[in-house]
Input
Amino acid sequence: MSLLSVKNLRIELSTRAGVAPVIDDLSFDLAAGEAISFVGESGCGKSMTALGLMGLLPEGIGRIAGGSITFDGEELTTASEARLRAIRGNDISMIFQEPMTSLNPVYTVGEQIAEVLREHQRLSRRAAWDMAAELLDAVRIPNAARRVSDYPFQMSGGQRQRVMIAMALACKPKILIADEPTTALDVTVQAQIFDLLRDLRRDIGSSIILITHDMGAVAEMADRVIVMYAGRKAELGPVETIISHPRHPYTKGLISCVPHIISPLTDAREELTEVPGIVPPLGEFGADACLFASRCAHVTDQCTSARPKPQMFEAQHEAECWHAEDL
Amino acid sequence: MTLLSVTDLSVHFPVRRQGLFRPRQFLRAVDQVSFDLPAGETLAIVGESGSGKTTAALAVARLVKAAGGSVKLDGLEILGTEGEALRQLRSTVQFIFQDPYSSLNPRRRAEELVREPLDSLTDKSPAEKQEIVDALFAAVGLRTEQQRLFPHQFSGGQRQRIGIARALATRPRLVICDEPVSALDVAVQAQILNLLRRLQEQFNLTYLFVSHDLGVVQHMSDTIAVMYMGRIVERADRMRLFNNPQHPYTAALLSAVPSVNAAARAAQKRILIPGDPPDPVDLPAGCRFANRCPLAREQCRTIEPDLTDTGAGHMAACHFPEETRTLRSPGVQTA
Output
């Protein structure tokens, strides 16, 4: 049985122009110990999915309008706020994108990590503090026993992200959601953070949900990938299958529009494949048509008149495109 | 022909004194950086945050004050220029900024933004200016009717197109691109990179390209300078640098980039550089990279290596450049 099961999830945001479905009919399963990745451009609903799972949708603006989220047999969409508070940071925890702004500047990092432990594990002040130092050591901050009383401003970006990871892992969560955990960091630091996440996944056995826009990071970190476009699942499947044979033109574009490092490098320099245009505005979400049609090279009348049905392929690979068979 | 020639360029920032009678300390953000950039080509400066790549570019554009060295454009020294000569210089050296959201004045219409360099640096007639603005809008792929719009009515990619049109208004010879795509969405990056390469051909532009993204650098540049802690640690043409890096830091950077290709990922050996860079105000005695370098030995901790030619103009600041190869291929043993 899967650890997390999302069925026909619909999340609506109220905007000045009306209500828009930022997540439109999303279903997926996550097994224990599995790493799954969400990719797509900004505004495609990746972060909203994460916030929805955590019960952290912006109050009064976003709401779960339909579908179900089952975690370990428990329905989360109808759970009480108290119950969600007990789960958040304990069973499901999250690493946010901006290590610079998601730590509290007026508390030491030790106090911030200890707070999680005292809240969820009922540790004493003393025990929580010692545990915080151990956690900092586990995320490979040198001299952890001393650095635990540092304030966030005394640390580099990479170190702050490690503090965030230490905090997220404090209670050995069953699911770790990492929302663009390395976007603000340098490549060498990114590689260190990925190593760390891989090791921790192996040691603790947490499932990981990695949200990113970088196909390279997906290939490096995840078992399966969900490509999101305009609030909908464009494609889902094993990472290797999707990278070697994408069935949705958007996935294809996401892979080929980035100049990847070529090794060995030759003199040839091809033009990059462009995906013309941008993600449609929220007001156009939810239309009964393929939302990628305006940017797609394979568009036909069918694409603009009906929303594509999921097409199934080998190896649990599915794509929501009318032309998936031919691609 | 060399358009831009930079020799021993340094930029120092004063840091706060520790006590009233202590000597004033400086952070050497850019420390004796040298490179030549031939006309029509692209030189990329790569490095991680804090390496001094943007500061070096700003100093070339005379947007921060250099502490020493020389920057020659077409053989003419530009560091000491003042007054009218500096104004002339500004029209030949233009800048494309990283963040298209904060680098455009929100109260000006797109056409005014693009026209502004013409207003302040040239004395063309209004009709001539309008003609240039029209041509630029077409060249960067914006429609004429969009000239009347304000920045907030454009997407990020379109805003960067306005920034590019503005940089090209005075027909500059050197364009400095500071992370021109890193604030944009992945799919939009390709549009802007392709545009920059088309414009380079069309207007015979020379680019000084600052970026932290090695994939982008590999795609865009002819020569690459890798910076670490204010210094160039390696400088070579595109093929040599990527196929045969001579500095362990370059090799480590390359190995840290995630690859989508499973075979490449399996063949790639990750070179670990643990720890953080040293304190830039209080630099160690020897090589600045020594505390993280897998090849470091005694000599590296005492003597700072100079940037020297390792063959065919491939410059590296390392005492043991030939050993970098052993880091990359796991089979070869160090002699």
Summary: The radius of gyration of chain B is 21 Å.
